[in-house]
């Protein structure tokens, strides 16, 4: 291998194990202590509620006859492999991206285990406001959503860094056109050296020519 595993994003794979332990542990406790449909209030607007999801998020394709189990399992495996490759190609110092990838992989594998072992995904978190209830979800779903949010956040941060370090696109020769439009009568602006001097005078110190 051309580089050490510890120097790549794979160094953060331990977080996948943490997510799996927490997710599968919480599901095990629900299966051992709850009957299907049982609800236990935790806090205002938050319940523990045992539900089974045979589809994807928001019970998408839950009533499709069973083929969706293998369909979503394949998607989870594919996404996990792709993100693992991206972690390998990333540097270990790229913390935000690697943490995001690890969270998504951990969540995907947690739900994958449920699909293959039980044939359904165990959900238990019931968030509600008044009579309105959000779709029941689990800690694996939470890890996936947090990971996706971190990727979006990193995208905004990267865009901001690029904009802050963006070089000036004004070229020295563009000054000739600017000077011509001003219609200065002085002959000192008609030569290219003069244009270059004008550019050096008006360009901010962080500008770079091309």
From TrEMBL:
Catalytic activity: Release of signal peptides from bacterial membrane prolipoproteins. Hydrolyzes -Xaa-Yaa-Zaa-|-(S,diacylglyceryl)Cys-, in which Xaa is hydrophobic (preferably Leu), and Yaa (Ala or Ser) and Zaa (Gly or Ala) have small, neutral side chains
EC class of the enzyme, as a word: hydrolase
Protein's GO biological process: proteolysis
InterPro entries assigned: Peptidase_A8
Residues spanning the membrane: 12-31, 70-88, 100-117, 137-159
EC number: 3.4.23.36
Function field: This protein specifically catalyzes the removal of signal peptides from prolipoproteins.
Family: Belongs to the peptidase A8 family.
Stated name of the protein: Lipoprotein signal peptidase
Native species: Escherichia coli
Lineage: Bacteria, Pseudomonadati, Pseudomonadota, Gammaproteobacteria, Enterobacterales
